[in-house]
Design a protein that fits this description.
heterodimer; A: mainly alpha; Cytochrome C Oxidase, Chain A; B: about 220 residues; elongated; binds copper (II) ion
Chain lengths: ~550, ~220
């Protein structure tokens, strides 16, 4: 149906040459809080998770500050425990899990497959409300009551011995899980049923493939965490004792249920980042991606194999050596699809027309950090080496390279790349490049010393440590201040650009993909008429972009 | 006939067929998450059985097998009536359909009443280890308390789902008391039906896992 047919003929046609974009179509506060537009919900998520990121980062800053001195004189043991729990819980469930899927994913998925919206716009809004309610509740609990179990809630510590508001925190995390489930469900149905004519599975951008794989994990893994935490809840509240050995329960069963969720959820954090990488690398090498199908299927392979590796967290926690070996082998196998992706990106960059703009700088940094994080992950997956370094700072460094190095860097790279699409404005390129470089330096300075500390034997989760570890700890804390600056700059210049940034135009990077064919910012239903897709993804001619 | 049955198109879809398929796939995906939610409890039950076979068997022998079996039959009948309701909704016969849904809800209530009686018998027989003020009278071994507790958690979670299902039935039947409901929202009956069948399916796993397997 054309626009003219929709209009009442008695009213004269408005004199605008563009449809009102989604930001300006309605301006009231209630038009934001009751919106069902996936783009606005993406923005709502962006604002809320940025808030949680800041809180989680402040907690991390306090932990790093306390670790400057070895004698634990800055924070008491109890406050230290509560601080790293606050940091872990907030960062994992209220920032990393929703980070890319719920902001960039929410905004881009319908645009990339040529849909007017997600399949269930009201459920999308509901998921945001569930998220905000549960996260504010949990934040309140963590700040006022305090929880000192770490983000893993291991039993019987969490059920028998820990002080603090474990019950309430667990409840908040159970509820926020439903926001993940609703988002995953919405994405799965959208990818299956909402694609524009001609948008076949193998014409979908790789970011969409990675979101699809992520959604499968969200839907399959989250309910298992829910029930595990429900059992912790009833155990602590009513003494039901499923995980209490004194009552014949099995504390290790909790670890199995927990890691059955929590290993795959690492891929919830990393897969969307990999999807962003595929987009950035092609756009800034200005070249068709190398090995499209390999990258697409490796996302699915990671999602599937990722469900069979959870035991690598428990090599020394009461599983037999035979299952330890099996889990070790599976963990090596799950690294293969990740490596395939890295090779394909490298091949894409090879002989490309490389532009080292901000998003590409983030992307290059990403590859470096991910390779270090991935290779040390393989070290941890080897049963013998893990015996030496498990529960040390080596583990802490490893998962920060993956969860911060890979997820946050891709998130920032993606935010910069799609910023003109989301806001219609350009950010400051020099400031962007400086921040991307600072981020890489600050990150390595913070976390590389922790590999060495861990290898030397410094255990994680203690406020007090031997003096011989102090130099590297101070170095790590100094790096954290650089990292903080690298996070602060984008927050400032991106917000500044909303008012003072140059108008971006529809496609400032000359990128390919359906989302760049519509206006910036896009109209409420994304496209003025339904797109018909008759081109392959990443349809770069391998010619330099016309500037 | 086709004019009396249909769906009101929502703005994000291109056509009614797309909307119908999206709703169905969405419900199936949700039900998959529900299955995984319960499977955590099933795994725990099996772990307990492997670790403490004797005390689990002792508890299972005290579960009211005949009440469980009758309830299984009740849910099968309710699902059958729901299938009839769905068939009627496709034919556009709104009033008989609403009556069938009330019938489905009635069987659901019957299930809950029997379940409540079963809980009462458990209470009388001192089989409620989570009540700190009441003596527990089965085998002294702590694992038997665990399995009894798990029985209450699992059947309780199922009952919560059933209560949601009954509420849905009543709301849908009430909405369908107005003229023209099926012209706009026939889809909702299909989706509600999926959910109801699924609760029954869960019970078909709960019953053998708790009552049968351990006897
Ligand atoms: Cu893992």
């Amino acid at each position: 149906m054309s626009d003219a047919a929709l209009r009442d003929p008695r009213i004269p046609a408005p004199v605008i040459d563009r449809p009102e974009d989604y930001l300006h179509v309605e301006q009231t506060l209630s038009s934001w809080f009751f919106t069902t537009d996936h783009k606005r919900i993406g923005i709502l998520y962006l604002v809320s998770i940025t808030g949680f990121f800041v809180i989680g980062a402040i907690a991390a800053g306090i932990v790093r500050l306390a670790l400057v001195v070895p004698d634990g004189s800055i924070l008491s043991n109890e406050v230290y425990n509560r601080m790293f729990t606050l940091h872990g819980v907030i960062m994992v469930w209220f920032f990393l899990v929703p980070s890319i899927p719920n902001t960039l994913g929410n905004f881009l998925l319908p645009l990339m497959i040529g849909a007017k919206d997600l399949a269930f716009p009201k459920i999308n809004l509901l998921s945001w409300y569930v998220f905000v309610t549960a996260s504010l509740f949990t934040l309140f609990v963590l700040l006022w009551g305090g929880v000192d179990t770490g983000w893993t809630f291991y039993t019987p510590l969490s059920t028998q011995y820990a002080n603090g508001y474990v019950i309430a925190a667990v409840l908040g995390i159970i509820v926020v899980g439903y926001s993940s489930i609703l988002t995953g469900l919405n994405f799965i149905v959208t990818v299956h049923k909402m694609r524009a004519p001609g948008m076949t599975w193998f014409r979908m951008p790789l970011f969409v493939w990675s979101l699809y794989a992520t959604s499968l994990i969200l839907v399959l893994a989250t309910p298992v965490l829910t029930i595990a935490l429900v059992l912790v809840f009833v155990d602590r509240a009513f003494g039901l004792g499923v995980f209490n050995p004194e009552q014949g329960g099995d504390p290790v069963l909790f670890q199995h249920l927990f890691w059955f969720y929590s290993h795959p959820v690492v891929y919830v954090m990393v897969l969307p980042g990999m999807g962003v990488m595929s987009e950035l690398v092609t756009a800034y090498a200005y070249k068709k991606i190398f090995g499209y199908k390999f990258i697409a299927f490796s996302s699915l392979a990671i999602a599937v194999i990722g469900f069979f590796v959870w035991g690598h967290h428990m090599f020394y926690n009461g599983i037999t050596q035979y299952s330890a070996l099996t889990f070790s082998l599976m963990s090596f196998i799950v690294a293969v699809p990740s490596a395939i992706k890295v090779y394909n990106w490298a091949a894409t960059i090879h002989k490309g027309q490389i532009r080292l703009d901000t998003p590409m700088l983030y992307a290059m940094g990403w590859i470096g950090l991910f390779v270090i994080g991935g290779v040390t992950g393989l070290m941890l997956a080897s049963t013998a080496l893990d015996g030496h370094v498990h529960d040390t700072y080596f583990v802490v460094a490893h998962f920060h390279y993956i969860m911060v190095g890979a997820t946050v860097v891709a998130f920032l790279g993606g935010i910069h790349y799609w910023w003109p699409k989301m806001t219609g404005r350009l950010y400051s390129e020099p400031w962007g490049r400086v921040s991307a470089l600072l981020m890489f330096i600050g990150f390595n300075m913070t976390f590389f010393p922790q590999y060495i500390l861990g290898y030397m034997g410094m255990p994680r989760r203690y406020a007090v440590y031997p003096e011989s570890y102090q130099v590297l700890n101070v170095l790590s804390s100094a790096g954290a201040t650089i990292l903080a600056a690298a996070y602060l700059f984008p927050m400032i210049y991106l917000v500044w650009s909303l008012w003072y940034g140059e108008k971006a135009g529809d496609n400032p990077w000359h990128a390919k993909g359906l989302e760049w064919t519509t206006t910036s910012p896009p109209p409420k239903h994304n496209f003025r008429k339904m797109p018909i897709v008759d081109f392959d993804p990443y349809d770069y001619s391998n010619e330099p972009p016309e500037e | 006939m086709s004019s009396t049955v249909g769906i009101e198109l929502e703005e994000q879809y291109h056509d009614v067929e797309q909307q119908r398929e999206a709703a169905k796939l969405g419900m199936w995906t949700f039900l998959l998450t529900e299955l995984l939610l319960f499977s955590g409890l099933f795994v725990t039950a099996l772990v307990l059985r492997v670790m403490h076979p004797d005390s689990v068997t002792a508890v299972a022998l005290h579960l009211k097998f005949w009440i469980g079996a009758t309830n299984t039959a009740i849910l099968i009948v309710s699902s059958f009536i729901m299938s009839v309701a769905i068939e009627l909704s496709r034919l556009g016969r709104q009033r008989p359909m609403a009556w069938c849904m009330l019938g489905t809800a009635a069987f659901g209530v019957l299930f809950l009443m029997l379940k409540g009686y079963e809980y009462y018998r458990d209470y009388v027989e001192h089989m409620t280890p989570f009540l700190s003020f009441r003596r527990y009278e089965l085998v002294g071994d702590p694992a038997s308390r665990l399995f009894t507790n798990l029985y209450f958690i699992t059947t309780g979670l199922h009952a919560v789902h059933l209560i949601i299902g009954i509420t849905l039935m009543l709301v849908m039947a009430w909405l369908a008391s107005r003229e023209g409901f099926l012209q706009k929202h026939q889809n909702r009956i299909e989706i509600t039906g999926l959910y109801w069948h699924f609760i029954d399916l869960i019970w078909m796993i709960v019953f053998p896992t708790l009552y049968l397997l351990n006897r």
